[in-house]
Amino acid sequence: MKKIGFIDYFLNEWHADNYPAWIRERSGGVYEVAYAYALAEPPYEGKLSNGEWARKQGVTLLGSIEELVEKSDAIVVLSPDHPQFHKELSRIPLTSQKPVYIDKTFATTGQEAKEIFALAESNGTPCYSSSALRFSKKLQAMKTAPVQGIISTAGGPVDTYLIHQLEPIVTLMGPEIDRIMYLGNPMMPSWELHFRDGRTASMALFKGDAPFRLQIGYEDRSAELLVDDEFFLYFIDAMLEFFDTGIIPVPHRETITMMAALEACWKAMAMPGKWLMLEE
User: Fold this and answer.
1) Same domain, yes or no, for 273 and 140?
2) Among 53, 85, 118, 190, who pairs with 204 as Cys (CB 3.0-4.6 Å)?
3) Domain contains 78
4) Could you tell me if residue 235 is inside a domain?
């Protein structure tokens, strides 16, 4: 059985709570989450301590990232809602030459994304990051069709859920975003994305519960509506295949572009109605 190590800011969060069972089930018991390390105890009331989480999950809680990396066959850096810790938490794993998955949102800026990937590449460590929505079966089936434009709507907190709209757009349209404009309001922030070849995409994120929807327009003037389907289990399948093969399923360039685009989205909110150019 191959051992996976989880590294997190704190462990009692939705991804760490659910990934171990899915990994065990989807791998047929070939992989298990065996080790975990957390940077801090949960800062919120009502959360399990790291030790309580580890006992509940049947995982060995370790005292250092170094020990976890040494004992693990593959490493998952979590902290999905606190990406400001990803650079710190992934530094040692990315020198290990063992496969490393870093959870969404990968980095806080485009430059930070470049620095994280540069560390991995200079040490020969395979790694990637992605929103789980990239691995929707319906979305994967659409990738071969030439897309002219997308209107994306969803619900959730802006700081952690906007990546779930950017990831499908870049998956279908490519990473050639050159500028972004903010057009929304506090309850429904929205952005216009412009691509170098003139194509556009729109994102609106309702600060409440709403499904992920993509209205996709093709070059032949046909259109298709994608409503979010099961994607987390296919996301786990892709992660396990990566751990087996070391083949990176998401190009680093696309992830860097998405982090730069997210950075631009935050900055654009201070200048509504004006284009903000993405930095190269």
Assistant:
1) yes
2) 190
3) yes
4) no
Strand partners, 230: none
Average pLDDT over residues 164-176: 94
Tell how strand 74-77 and strand 60-61 pair up. unpaired
Report the pLDDT value the prediction gives residue 87, as an integer from 0 to 100: 98
Backbone phi and psi for residue 23, each to the nearest 5 degrees, phi listed first: -60, -45
Q: Which domain holds residue 116?
A: 2-129
| Helix orientation angle between 252-268 and 163-173, rounded to the nearest 10 degrees | 130
Angle CA(104)–CA(255)–CA(149) in degrees, nearest 5?
Answer: 105
Please give the tally of structural domains in the chain: 2
Number of C-beta neighbours around residue 279 at 10 A:
10
* 133-160 exposure pattern, b = at least 16 Cβ within 10 A, e = fewer: bbbbeebeebeeeebbbbbbbbebeeee
- pLDDT for the residue 70: 98
In sequence order, what DSSP letters do the residues of 44-69 get, joined into one string?
STTPPPHHHHHHHHT-EE-S-HHHHH
pLDDT tens for residues 32-46? 999 999 999 999 899
CATH code assigned at 34 = 3.40.50.720
Alpha-carbon distances, residue 179 vs 185, 189, 259, 268, 280 (angstroms): 19, 17, 13, 10, 11
Residue 218, domain CATH: 3.30.360.10
* 2-8 sheet: strands from edge to edge: 60-61, 31-38, 2-8, 74-77, 100-102, 127-129
